[in-house]
Amino acid sequence: MTPRPFTGAFTQQEPIGDVAIAAAVAVMKTGRLHRYNTIPGELSQVSLLESEYAAYQQQSYCLACASGGYAMHIALLAAGMQPGEPVLTNAFTLSPVPGAIVNAGGRPVLVECTRDLVIDLDDLDAKAAQSGARFLLLSHMRGHIADMEKIGEITAVHGMTLIEDCAHTMGATWNGVKSGNFGLAGCFSTQTYKHMNSGEGGLLTSNDPDFMARAIILSGSYMLYERHGAAPEGSHFADIRLDTPNCSGRMDNLRAAILRPQLAELDNSIERWNERYRTLETALRRSALFYLPIRPDAEHYVGSSIQFLAEGISQENARDFVLANKALGVELKWFGASEPVAFTSNHHSWRYLQQQNLPETDAVQSGLFDMRIPLTFTVADCAHIADIIVHCAGPLRLKGAA
Ligand SMILES: *Cc1c(COP(=O)(O)O)cnc(C)c1O
Predict the structure, then answer these.
(1) Range of the domain at 297
(2) Within a 10 A sphere around the Cβ of 294, how many other Cβ atoms?
(3) Which of 47, 90, 154, 261 is the most exposed place for a label (fewest CB within 10 A)?
(4) What is the number of the ligand 1 atom nearest to the C-alpha of 140?
């Protein structure tokens, strides 16, 4: 029997809460929206957010900025990347990641992805040796965390600096250590579809004072770097303030004001996401047609989206499957499409890069489906959605499946 259609909206986040709205209104009543526009003795909302996020992330320093992509861009520059240098990153990620490398003047070298949706460690090792890259911008794409001890070994052997793209792992941990704390820096996004919502926004964290001093000057702090909430001491800026360009990309007080109450709720939101994720995962695992990526015990993830593979599915079947789900109100994204759609694209459509041969990633992405889990969905909604997906998979005939 065909399940009844689902009528929820896949792009509908929860509303901004009353406390956050009141905080934003209070900022507007002062007129002091720019982060450095403070009165004597006042700490701006942005500075307060920086100190609160540094504490949450258990890092010494935090810089709030314009977007997650911008955080990655200035992280590479502050780490000392030179024009034209190769930078290793995941082939399976979203376009702002290679975009940030290109924006910083680097050359993305894409590393293969496994069917568990993490970076392929053997390919990483091989490409680190071949390319001589000094930097790995590791994208924890869709919240899947690679074996971070092994990543640490590989980066150490090749003398690579690790920068983490934590757009989908804000609040996640690996063996009890927060995602973002494994290398030089962690980059986070507060864009609407991530774990905190300020429309646009980014956070950059580190324990390295000179790196953070460079990032702060890059972000456009003029000579007001002492008005920060979680910045290194003034002595670290003595030369850096003169040697580093201003690439304006600050956060404003309005965004920070609505993020601070969300940060206080973040761990609670994570519990709610994971309850929904597990409901979907358990139901989808019952279908022999799907492979659900393994989530290792070391990984405490944030299930803000779910991915599953229909391995061996044809292009035509994949398109029909997406349409059948859509007809019943379920919006799946498919990473195997030849044309990029909305936020979803694969490396074949990043034509500003030198084309790279990635057969393993292509095989994974050709059968890879992806779905957002907004917190406006109830747990019952998630069970209903899983019923629809399994129902629509009924007519599929896949390699190796009954
Ligand atoms: C959203 C996203 C980013 C960047 O975030 P923006 O704030 O939109 O620049 C980086 N990496 C991944 C994997 C993302 O999904």
Answers:
(1) 266-398
(2) 12
(3) 261
(4) 13
Mean pLDDT is lowest, of 38-47, 236-245, 388-397, for: 388-397
Query: Do 23 and 89 share a structural domain?
Result: yes
186 in contact with ligand 1, CB cutoff 6 A = no
- Quick: pLDDT tens for 238-275: 999 999 999 999 999 999 999 999 999 999 999 999 99
Which ligand 1 atom minimizes the distance to the CA of 193?
A: 1
Q: Give the Å distance between the CA of 199 and the centre of ligand 1.
A: 12
Q: Are residues 73 and 85 in the same domain?
A: yes
Helix (H, G, I), strand (E, B) or coil at 189: strand
Residue 402 has pLDDT above 50, yes or no: no
5 lies in some domain: no
Q: For 367-383, write each residue's pLDDT tens digit.
A: 999 999 999 999 999 99
pLDDT of residue 249: 98
Distance of CA 40 from the midpoint of ligand 1 (Å): 36
**281 in the same domain as 182:** no
Same domain, 146 and 50: yes
Distances in Å between the Cα of 63 and the Cα atoms of 20, 85, 235, 238, 251 are 20, 25, 18, 19, 9
Q: Does the CB atom of residue 253 touch ligand 1 within 6 A?
A: no
N-to-C CA span, the chain: 20
For residues 304 and 353, membership in a common domain is answered with yes
Tell which wins on pLDDT, 46 or 396: 46
Is residue 192 located within the same domain as residue 238?
A: yes
Any ligand 1 atom below 6 A from CB of 189: yes
Look at the chain and report how many structural domains it folds into. 2
The answer, yes or no, to whether any atom of ligand 1 lies below 6 A from the CB of 68, is yes
List the Cα angle 294/299/303 in 5-degree steps. 75
Average pLDDT, the chain: 96
In a domain, 13, yes or no: no
Check if 96 has its Cβ closer than 6 Å to any atom of ligand 1: yes
Please give the distance, rounded to the nearest whole angstrom, from the Cα atom of residue 342 to the centre of ligand 1.
13
Is the pLDDT at 129 greater than 90? The verdict is yes
Q: Is the CB of 79 under 6 A from ligand 1?
A: no
Question: Is residue 134 one of the residues assigned to a domain?
Answer: yes
Residues 277 and 252 in one domain: no
Does any ligand 1 atom lie closer than 6 A to the CB of residue 167? yes
Pocket lining: 90 vs ligand 1, CB cutoff 6 Å? no
For 52-89, the DSSP string reads: HHHHHHT-SEEEEES-HHHHHHHHHHHTTPPTT-EEEE
Q: Report the share of the chain in percent with pLDDT over 70.
A: 99
Q: Which residues contact 380 (CB under 8 A, 6 or more apart)?
A: none
